């Protein structure tokens, strides 16, 4: 099989996971991302395997995003609605619908592991993103390791430093504890002065450091891209420390910086605390609640129709 990354250099192994790394790939040619393939996925995706979102177009970081639904539409109709509207669709489990996407994410990480000495990934996941021309995705941070792969269209990706004040310790801890949604990260307009802006076009990708805040602005064209996320032992250690720090901060009320070290007795104490709380019967896994208040509607302004609000959890 031909390599997925087409311009890998030996020195990229020293950058992976520690610095932003923009590379070229050949997946823009893949039949997994044609209109026919995307339409089939949309038509077969159950409610717990997709999100469709909308937010008003404004300069800079967009306002609150709304959650919607897809109902009684063919996949091609939905793609037309995205092309003509102001919405974006996340297909969160395409591998459940077609095992080819599971094989793709395994092939991607097999290639990374072959290039980066000592890299061992697990809990890998691929999410497909289909978004309207000009759509903006709100400033946010992700918990696992992340890479964004551009397949069709073009976008700007703003990446911010992965530390205070762009992401504070308390905000990261609340994100990891499930008390803060990733798109509710505090943002100030002046943050943009310190962002690095990457242009993503078909056949390019970007990997950035863990928890690095970022936001996305589409160019005036339909965009198809996907994210891959992964865990490693190193990333899990960081997660455990921040989880424990969040518990300590809640119990003590401290606002002081807490150690994020992943070695020594202090780390093992926090690892034990995180495990005891996370897997306690008194701490059931939190489900996220989503308020749905629009339906995808081809031909209407922004391709949406307001509906009476209802909730679903996942």
Q: Which features characterize this protein?
A:
14 strands; ten-stranded mixed sheet; Jelly Rolls; 2 domains; 314 residues; alpha+beta
How do the strands line up in the largest sheet? 1-10-7-12-5-4-2-3-13-14
Number of domains: 2
Sheet bearing the most strands, described? 10 strands, mixed
Shape: globular
- Tell me the CATH topology of the largest domain: Jelly Rolls
The CATH superfamily of the largest domain turns out to be Cupin
Order of helices and strands: HEHEEHEHHEEEEHEEEEHHEE
Assembly classification:
single chain
CATH top level class name of the largest domain: Mainly Beta
Kindly report how far apart the N and C termini lie: 37 Å
Q: Which structural category fits the helices and strands?
A: alpha+beta
Rg is 20 Å
CATH architecture level-2 label of the largest domain: Sandwich
Q: Assess the beta-strand content as a share of residues.
A: 25-35%
**Which consecutive residue ranges, at least 5 long each, have pLDDT under 50?**
none
Helix and strand layout, with pairings?
Blueprint lengths: L11 H4 L5 E4 L10 H10 L5 E5 L11 E4 L5 H10 L2 E5 L2 H4 L1 H17 L6 E10 L4 E5 L4 E8 L2 E5 L9 H9 L18 E5 L3 E4 L6 E5 L4 E9 L1 H20 L11 H15 L10 E8 L7 E10 L1
Parallel strand pairs: 3-13
Antiparallel strand pairs: 1-10, 2-3, 2-4, 4-5, 5-12, 6-11, 7-10, 7-12, 8-9, 8-11, 13-14
Helix pairs in contact: 2-3, 6-7, 7-8
